[in-house]
Amino acid sequence: MSEITTTLTGFSAATIEKKRAVDAVQEGAQSTTGTAEYTFDVSNMDLFYDEYQALKDINMKIRKNEITALIGPSGCGKSTFLKTLNRMNDWVEGCRVTGDIRFEGQDIFKEVDPLALRYRVGMVFQQPTPFPKSVYENIAYGPRVQGINDKKKLDEIVERSLRQAACWDEMKDRLNKSALGLSGGQQQRLCIARTLAADPSVILMDEPTSALDPISTQKIEDLALELKEKYTIVIVTHSMQQARRISDRTAFFLLGELIEYDNTLDMFTNPSNPKTEEYITGRFG
Question: Is 257 among the domain residues?
Answer without folding.
Answer: yes
